[in-house]
Amino acid sequence: MATFRFQRIPSASSGVAFAARAAAILLALAVAGLILAATGADPLDLGWQVISASFSSSFGLEDLALLVTPLILTGLSVAVAQQIGAWNIGAEGQFYAGAFGAAVVGLFVPGPPAFILPAMFAAGLLGGALWILIPTLARAYANVNELITTLLLNFVAILLVFYVSTSVWRDRTANSATPRMSAEIPEFWGSVHWGLPIAVLVAVAVGLCLAFSRWGYEVRLVGSNPSAAKYAGIPVRRHLIAVMLLSGAIAGLAGMLEVAGTVHRLQGGISNNYGYLGIMVAVLARSSAIGVIFSAALMAFILNSGIILQTQGLTTSAVLAITGLILFLTAIGDELAHYRITRDKA
Amino acid sequence: MDLLTGLFTTAFLAGGVLALAALGEVLAERVGVVNLGVEGLMAMGALTAIATVAAVPSPSIGFLAALAVGALFGMVFAFATVILRANQVLCGLALTLMGSGLASTIGRAYSGMPARAVFPGVEVPILSTLPVLGKAFFSQNILVYLIYIILPVGLSILMFRTRHGLNLRAVGENPAAADAAGIPVTLIRFAYVTAGSALAAGAGAYLTLTFVPSWSDGVVAGRGWIAVALVIFAGYRPIPAVLSGLLFGFITALGFVGQARGWPVAPAFLSMLPYLGTVAFIIVPVLAFQRMRRIMAAPAALGLPYYRDVR
């Protein structure tokens, strides 16, 4: 009689992991639909509303494109840190810090846009990198868990931006935002600005560097086996610092693009949870820099659905809950993807 | 009330939230499971408590309901991480997103609602007449005594003075050896993760039944993450965990006193204090006391799933 048993293999096959992700998303959406149905709504009708609002008009597609841009970058930020084995849960805070840096330049430095925009770009990168500096050094020199330090600084950044936009830099006409900045990233399609191609380019460039450069090889080696990397003479600490600062800078860039391209003001709650959703984007992409582009598109659709359904009583916090469910099921699926069924003849 | 008494009273009250959540996290981490879902569990607990006392005006029932909801979520988390052995960091983050998201979605119906019943203060005879501590500690609600005295002392004895405590620590240090010695690794992990999650939700209920006492979106405000950090700072021990909760209660109280007395610092900066303080407190001790590292070290198998059949 033949008996079946489960055998755990060291690495999951990417096909099964991909299928697990698809199953996790469908299952989470089904659960969300069931809950909606239980509250008396018609989930199929709502689903149809979402799809027609997202794809049947250019406005819907423009909205999606505007949501994809920051999600690509925050997802990339988390994914890059993952490549070297670090958890950057602080993309939310670095996003705010980048937005803050860009706003300092945009609000207070006079000059033509051709000068201001690059300066804002640099300030955004710098803001994000500075925000992750202390967690980075603490991890590199004292082995302090970066997951918690990066996360706690989110709250500080959110409070800082909330403070400046509601008091010292407040626009007298707007209630809780700074004045509109004159330097704007030009738009190329409806309300979609050049931030989108920039985000895609950054993701592709980082992906190519990680896959094909010597630096990228060393970073991936440190990520998969730090002690082997150290033994092979790779400067582990230097790579760790560089990658974490890069991760922060990318999230900061997302904040800069949001300020200079989409919102044009600094305000509390500017990030829409992009930093936290970035974790989801990176996990769905299995920390691949190129994959982030696609999973960001998917996440943008889910977030946009939540925004469309706000009129139906749904909130962005419901989206966060559904995201959590997808993440939970994905984590389980990833583990189950490590198993194969073997058959022994007895 | 004079400044000192006010400061101590708020410190004990505010610190209780962090202390209870940190105690729960100590339970989970001591058996080798990192539970990053504390923030979400606290949100669910806070909401459950408010919703329950809105229906049944009894704070004890509200608190127990929160414990039950926390245990339920904890079992789901433990099923994924202990039995299916899925990634603990991802499942924890997922739990935080689910808990926080769900609580604010359901909580919209309770927005701004004050708790219909709160835990009243209990004056301990004789001790409550002490100069500062009498008002600040010995006149507090019953949960404060539970959090600062009964739970930490009880858990400390359980963990460090009993055979069962030795077993549960062995599960966190070396599950393979514990398994070989006949200790039920999976059962112990499952039970303590569930109990820890219940305490985290209890911390949320404490927040809305004594400290804040009302529900508003984002009421937990990162306290769950501070609690996770405090466990590291406390070296994974119950009594230091409670004391560090109290320390952060002081930092929070300092911010309140500052606002009440109109110190020339913007409230936003005073609100940053607990977060910045936590970052400082988990970095500085590592740098300052190299020798403390061994005593304060994390359980050796922390975060690692245990596979009996894979070597």
TrEMBL record, chain A:
The GO terms describing molecular function are: transmembrane transporter activity
Q: What are the transmembrane regions? A: 64-81, 93-109, 115-134, 146-165, 194-217, 238-257, 277-302, 314-333
Q: Which Pfam families match?
A: BPD_transp_2
Record keywords: Cell membrane, Membrane, Transmembrane, Transmembrane helix
Listed name of the protein: ABC transporter permease
Q: Provide the Gene Ontology terms for cellular component.
A: plasma membrane
Organism source for this protein? Ferranicluibacter rubi
Q: What is its main location?
A: membrane
From TrEMBL, chain B:
Recorded GO molecular functions are: transmembrane transporter activity
Record membrane topology: Multi-pass membrane protein
Predominant location category? membrane
Subcellular location field: Cell membrane
Q: Has keyword Transmembrane helix?
A: yes
Membrane-spanning intervals of the chain: 38-56, 63-84, 90-110, 142-160, 190-212, 218-236, 243-262, 268-289
Per the record, its GO cellular-component terms are: plasma membrane
Concerning CDD domains, the annotation shows: TM_PBP1_transp_TpRbsC_like
Q: Which UniProt keywords apply?
A: Cell membrane, Membrane, Transmembrane, Transmembrane helix
Keyword check for Cell membrane: yes
PANTHER family from the xrefs? ABC TRANSPORTER PERMEASE PROTEIN, SUGAR ABC TRANSPORTER INTEGRAL MEMBRANE PROTEIN-RELATED
Protein name as it appears in the record:
ABC transporter permease
Source lineage: Bacteria, Pseudomonadati, Pseudomonadota, Alphaproteobacteria, Hyphomicrobiales
